[in-house]
Description:
The protein has 201 residues and is α/β, with parallel strands linked by helices. The chain has helices at residues 23-31, 48-51, 56-75, 78-81, 100-112, 123-127, 140-150, 167-175, 181-197, and strands at residues 6-9, 11-12, 15-16, 36-39, 87-89, 131-133, 155-156. 46% of the residues lie in helices and 10% in strands.
Amino acid sequence: LGFKAISLASSYNGVYLDDKRFLTIYKIAEQNNVPIFVHSQIVNPIGFERVQDSLLTPVVEYVFDTTICIGKLLMADILRDYPNLKFIFAYFGGVITHLEHRFDATYQMLRGINFVKDLKAKPTDYLRNIYVDTSGDIKKTNFLSALELLGPKHILWGSDWPAKKDIASSIQAVKNLDINEEDKENILGNNLEKILWCRKV
């Protein structure tokens, strides 16, 4: 279809995406308006040897590998230094949107005792720049949390096929949201279309 994107896992063999080896990718992607889609690491994510459970690994560990990945990008100043880079994280970015108040409140407290580095802004000021996909989810709580932190322009509908096969319900979940029709259409496709076609030739 003529669009380009980069796909990465949230971690590789114990290394998250804040590692310096990825910086060249981010620079080129930002310069060329190429989005980066990040899916949780499903092959031995960090800490798998301590969990070793066929249910807990996909349900809990995948989600938190993505969450830590975003947090590491924040603390490495990558979300600040590459403000025009479009990171898209699967499954609502793990639980990152549920941590909005905790991020800012804890950061403010730790800055007050000089226990954490100066990010030059609140954590959520940078986190609001990321995009997330819905990964076939139908629960309202995830949508509401994402809408509060990111707003409707940074949420992209996704199916998570073939892990989730009830595509109709995942679309209906967006249509059931208490937001205007334009925002619903943006989530269901227009947001992604704008990202994929907004690149330098």
